[in-house]
Amino acid sequence: xxxxxxxxxxxxxxxKVAETLKDLIKTKELTENIEEVLVPMHEVTEVKRxxxxxxxxxxxxxxxxxxxxxxxxxxxxIKGIKRVSGFLGT
Length: 90
What we know:
By secondary structure, this protein is α+β, with helices and mostly antiparallel strands. Helices cover 24% and strands 42% of the residues.
């Protein structure tokens, strides 16, 4: 059974880490172990200089959510990605 894990990243590099992880999944053929990589976002309407502007805002800045079967190899693979601080929790 796959569980959700939270990976802590440097703030502002969530999308870059998610893309790097998706590339690793394809190259190392880890599709059966890692099901989904997610950076939760929602659209926000702001008023800037009198104009309405839509932009995407992150729900959890500095975090990437991963649904996977955890093992020692995957833990070290993800932890070794640049701009990844580690996993949230124990």
